[in-house]
Design brief:
heterodimer, A: 273 residues, alpha+beta, 13-stranded antiparallel beta sheet, 5 helices, 44% strand, disordered N terminus, B: 819 residues, four-stranded antiparallel beta sheet, 60% helix, elongated
Chain lengths: 273, 819
């Protein structure tokens, strides 16, 4: 967690001064600025490591459903983040596993390995772009990578109002990609965040595609503390263009036990849980 | 007595009409305004699907399949470079990226659904895994790099033929629309973009695809209608001027035209009926028809004026209408019957509506011709037409050169009636031979002129790539994930291999191709691994792997969400029905004999299949619609003349004209297709008028007034014959205007109907009298004379009774040449 915060702090120091100048007239005096809110979000504790069960439910526009049950692990190594996902169900993909190393350097491609039990082989697969969809869900790799945080350096931030959402007071913050290149990479031309003003958790984010068409809305629900860390247990995305929906249901979340390093290896991929 | 009653009623009716002429005219104006007010709400419908009955099973199934697999009609932009390196050179690849980026930012284009070499990924097997990466992140700067891109693309079978030509000289950008109704605007935006594109010598850009076709069609129709209708109106006005050489003779019929076209289109709009491609022909057809009644009424009117220049306008008008109401009512009814036949027997909604609203227009033309026209004429001071003059002493009508020409023609026919019948028999035989050569065929792209850019684009894309005409094979299994079973995948693979042996099939895509590609990539890119995995779990895992970087809707076009249904898309390089027919029928047979099994089945869908089914239907229904139209016209004519033989004789010229049109089509290779299939019913409805007018007049001359045949002919031709000549000119030239259309089917339709009308006119002026002279039909030559049927009209007509002093005025005038 600390490492991640450090990373963000550095970025802030570099970008805050510029962004603050740009955004001086941003919000009404009573509201914190967009950037301040974004900083608050990213300052939240999300645990150095975590293990959890995740059920992914994907529903296409005709109402057909795919359900996948997984067990996932995540751990920070300095600024580097390692993730392992083991598929449990359905049976024909059981033991399929993905291992990902996310490197902090922008110019270094992430590493990704895959184990296909029917082939009994570990294969290295090329990294995905930030704007690519994640495992057939409506989240992009960037959405997943950031979890409940935001990419401060990618956007210009502006507080545009406040509103109750799911019964909680929240600030409405508009995030516009700093340039077209970033917008294209992310696949977004604008994001509107609703951020809970008490716990600095994003409760909702609405996304527009690069042409300004309404793209998708993500709702972060069932937010409860687990081992003193605020955690959204349900994530729901609806894609307004395709009519496709994704729901992530987290359970058995454990931040405190710690995850051993040998989980994030090719041997573990092959071995399974 | 019935006839006498009719005459009394008619006489009273026209007295009433001329008693309140201003009221009638104002009522007429209100009717025009009341209906025409809806015209601005008319909606265009240029979709190809508009021609298919919405409840046709092939269409319903296609729509269902499109919904399941999310298939759309995209815009297709082809970039062609026939140079040595093809499109694989730094400049052209940069052009592809340049275009892709700008197309993504066109309104109504879904930026996430633009596919090109600049957006797609290569899947490459490596020693330890698999690489999914863009063919190029930034366009190559050297030829060497461009060659590497070429190598990568050529090694990726899924894109060959579908995204890049197999020779590497063309590549596509395929763009889906968020809102299909914006096709016209998007097509215009694309053309503007292409215009600005930084092309080098040797590079060409074409815009095509079904989306572009319907987009272009909208603009095409607008431009066409704006040109056709004024030309038609102008030509008709000119004919009227030549016929009557008076202002009223030229302008009054235009008022009837206005009412007819205005009410037909207005009622169409009021009932939310769309303006289809062929609806463009409707105003032109109606202009021609509407003016016909007026020509006959005005011809009679000017004859009356010439004979009774001192009479009151009202009495002249009443006498005119008493003589003309019957023939124009009969022709109206027979024309309406023809259009009803078209409407009832046609399978295509645009034709059904065409028939219906043409029928309405003909009815309105009649209504205005028997009310507003006489009302207006009764208000105007008598003024003779220079075309109709009387020599004082003998009260003889001088006719102009048109009348004279018709008279000598009539006499010739009468003298040589056997020769006429003999010639007719020869022409008929030749017609039958030609009609057997008639070919049922259709190709959507032939709607446009050959030199249109969209036609060129379509040709290039179909030549260089696998084609953009799709036949979809929908594979169905009973349970979710049954598609993972190797035996099912093998069956699909075999089906594709078979399809690719058929003529004009250039390629096909299904999940099988993706699985093979993935299998190869995960096996160190070995060529021998380009085959289907044999373990169903591995198939499931491949799909999961693919989704690692794919869009959730990535396989939407190939498989449904629970892997129970698959779509095999077969690409053909032609949209010609006769070619599609071969493939569809072969595939139907293959599926029934080799594919279907208890746990798997397949059905055909896609545009190719829909076209096949409904064009086949068009072929079947076409001759039905001709038969229905002929039958209705025959019934109407028989009823009106109380004689089935009269009905048959009336129908002969129309039937002759249909045969002749078929022959022209057969000999000149014009297809029986969407546009041309309407010709017959319309030619019958219009062509029969000439016969009706001729027979009606002969009935009066021969049966009622006991003239000999030759006398009757001498009277008939310069009077009715002359009016028919102008009637014919108005119709033939009215339809002739369609030949200046940009829409090819309308050109063909217009020329064919013009041929048909000419044939009907000539047949009515030759075969019909010759036949009557040869067979002496009973309805003209009754065996026992009946006093009832020969009571002179004067006996029961109050105005005529008042006019009784005017003795010896022959109903029919002797003609004498103008010196």
């Amino acid at each position: 967690m600390k490492f991640k915060q450090n990373l963000f702090s550095k970025c802030f120091l570099m970008s805050v001064s510029v962004l603050m100048l740009v955004n001086t007239a941003v919000a009404e005096t009573s509201h914190p600025s967009g950037l301040e809110i974004a900083q608050q979000i990213n300052a939240r504790d999300e645990g150095a490591s975590v293990s959890r069960n995740l059920i992914m439910e994907m529903v296409d526009r005709r109402g057909k459903k795919r359900v996948r049950e997984t067990r996932g692990f995540r751990k920070y190594y300095g600024e580097e983040k390692r993730t392992m996902i083991f598929y449990l169900k359905p049976n024909n993909v059981r033991k399929t596993a993905f291992l990902t190393y996310d490197y902090p350097q922008a110019d270094q491609d992430d590493d990704q390995w895959l184990y296909l039990p029917a082939m009994r082989k570990v294969r290295r697969i090329s990294s995905s772009d930030r704007g690519d969809y994640f495992l057939g869900t409506d989240f992009t790799y960037e959405d997943i990578k950031k979890e409940n945080k935001v990419g401060i350096e990618d956007y210009n931030w502006k507080t545009v109002g406040e509103e109750e959402i799911d019964g909680h007071h929240s600030f409405i913050v508009e995030a516009i990609p700093v340039n077209d290149k970033i917008a294209k990479e992310l696949g977004y031309s604008k994001v509107i965040y609703h951020i809970d003003s008490n716990i600095w958790m994003v409760r909702q984010s609405a996304h527009w595609d690069v042409r300004g068409n309404e793209l998708k809305t993500i709702n972060f629900r069932d937010i409860r503390q687990v081992q003193n860390i605020w955690t959204a247990h349900t994530l729901e995305v609806s894609n307004h263009k395709t009519g496709h929906n994704t729901r992530f249901l987290f359970s058995d979340i454990d931040y405190s036990t710690g995850v051993t390093d040998d989980i994030f290896t090719q041997q573990a991929l092959r071995r399974g849980l | 007595m019935n006839k006498i009653n009719n005459e009394i009623w008619a006489s009273r009716f026209f007295q009433a009409v001329t008693a309140f002429p201003k009221t009638i005219i104002i009522a007429g104006l209100m009717l025009i305004l009341g209906t025409a007010i809806f015209i601005p709400t008319l909606q265009k419908d240029t979709r190809s699907d508009a021609f298919i009955p919405p409840d046709h099973p092939a269409l319903i199934y296609r729509d269902k399949v499109e919904d399941i697999f999310g298939l759309k009609d995209p815009m297709v932009i082809a970039i062609v470079n026939e140079g040595e390196a093809g499109v694989f050179n730094p400049h052209t690849l940069a052009l592809v990226e340049w275009l892709t980026e700008r197309i993504e930012s066109i309104d109504s284009i879904d930026p996430e659904r633009v596919t090109s070499l600049a957006t797609e990924n290569d899947i490459i097997g490596t020693d330890d895994g698999m690489l999914v990466e863009a063919f190029f992140e930034t366009p190559p700067t050297t030829q060497r790099q461009a060659d590497q891109v070429r190598e990568a693309v050529m090694d990726f079978p899924l894109y060959l033929g579908s995204l890049v030509s197999r020779h590497g000289d063309a590549t596509l950008i395929v763009a889906e629309l968020i809102d299909q109704t914006q096709a016209q605007q998007v097509y215009a935006d694309l053309l503007a973009l292409v215009e600005q594109a930084p092309t080098k010598q040797g590079e060409m850009i074409h815009v095509a695809g079904e989306g572009a076709v319907s987009g272009y069609m909208g603009a095409y129709i607008d431009a066409d209608a704006q040109r056709l209708n004024p030309i038609a109106a102008l030509i008709i006005t000119l004919i009227l001027f030549v016929a009557f050489r008076t202002l009223r003779g030229t302008l009054l019929p235009n008022f009837v035209v206005l009412a007819t076209v205005g009410s037909a289109l207005g009622v169409m709009a009021a009932f939310d009926v769309s303006f289809f491609v062929i609806t463009n022909a409707l105003p032109v057809v109606l202009i021609g028809i509407a003016v016909a009644d007026s020509i006959h009424i005005l011809s009679q009117y000017y004859e009356e004026v010439a004979q009774q220049p001192k009479d009151t306008p009202r009495r002249i008008v009443i006498r005119t209408m008493e003589k003309m109401w019957r023939p124009i009512t009969v022709t109206t009814l027979t024309t309406m019957a023809g259009f009803l036949g078209l409407s009832l027997a046609s399978v295509m909604p645009p034709m059904q509506y065409f028939g219906l609203f043409a029928m309405l227009g003909v009815g309105v033309a009649w209504l205005f011709s028997v009310t507003v026209l006489p009302a207006a004429l009764s208000l105007l001071k008598l003024k003779p037409s220079p075309a109709y003059q009387i020599q004082d002493q003998q009260n003889q009508l001088q006719v102009d050169r048109f009348g004279l020409a018709m008279k000598s023609f009539g006499c010739w026919v009468s003298r040589h009636h056997v020769l006429v019948l003999f010639l007719a028999a020869i022409v008929t035989s030749a017609g039958i031979v030609g009609a057997f050569k008639l070919e049922l065929n259709e190709a959507r792209i032939t709607i446009f002129q050959k030199d249109e850019p969209i036609v060129h684009a379509d040709t290039i894309i179909n030549q260089k790539l696998d084609g953009v005409h799709y036949l979809d094979v929908v594979v169905e299994t009973p349970q979710a994930e049954d598609l993972f079973k190797p035996e099912n995948l093998t069956r699909i693979e075999a089906l594709q291999s078979y399809a690719e042996t058929l003529p004009h099939v250039k390629g096909s895509t299904s999940i099988v191709d993706y699985l093979k590609q993935m299998n190869r990539a995960l096996n160190e890119d070995r060529l021998d691994a380009y085959q289907l995995p044999t373990d169903p779990d591995l198939v499931a895992q491949y799909f999961l792997l693919y989704s690692a970087s794919g869009d959730p809707a990535d396989f939407e076009e190939e498989a449904d969400y629970d892997y129970r249904l698959a779509n095999v898309r077969i690409r053909m390089d032609t949209g010609v029905y006769t070619h599609e027919k071969v493939v569809v029928e072969a595939m139907q047979l293959y599926i029934a004999d080799h594919f279907n099994a208890p746990d798997i089945s397949a059905n055909l869908s896609g545009r190719v299949n829909v076209d096949y089914h409904w064009i086949k239907l068009l072929g079947k229904s076409h001759f039905g619609s001709v038969a229905v139209a002929l039958m209705l016209v025959w019934m109407m004519a028989s009823f009106n003349m109380r004689s089935m033989v009269a009905g048959v004789i009336t129908v002969i010229p129309a039937a002759f004209s249909v045969l002749l049109i078929c022959a022209v089509m057969g000999f000149s290779g014009i297809w029986l297709a969407i546009g041309t299939s309407m010709f017959a019913a319309i030619a019958i409805g219009l062509g029969v008028d000439f016969a009706v007018h001729t027979i009606e007049r002969l009935k009066v001359l021969i049966r009622d007034q006991k003239h000999s045949f030759d006398e009757a002919i001498e009277i008939l031709y310069p009077s009715t014959g002359r009016a028919l000549l102008f009637n014919f000119a108005a119709l033939a030239l009215g339809f002739g205007v369609l030949t200046t259309s940009e829409v090819v089917p309308l050109i063909k339709f217009g020329s064919l109907v013009a041929v048909g009308i000419s044939a009907s006119f000539v047949a009515s002026m030759t075969i019909l009298p010759a036949l009557i002279k040869a067979i002496h039909p009973a309805f003209l030559y009754p065996k026992t004379s009946s006093a009832n049927t020969t009571i002179p009209i004067e006996m029961i007509d109050p105005i005529r009774l008042a006019d009784a002093t005017h003795k010896e005025r022959k109903d029919e005038v002797q003609t004498k040449p103008i010196q």
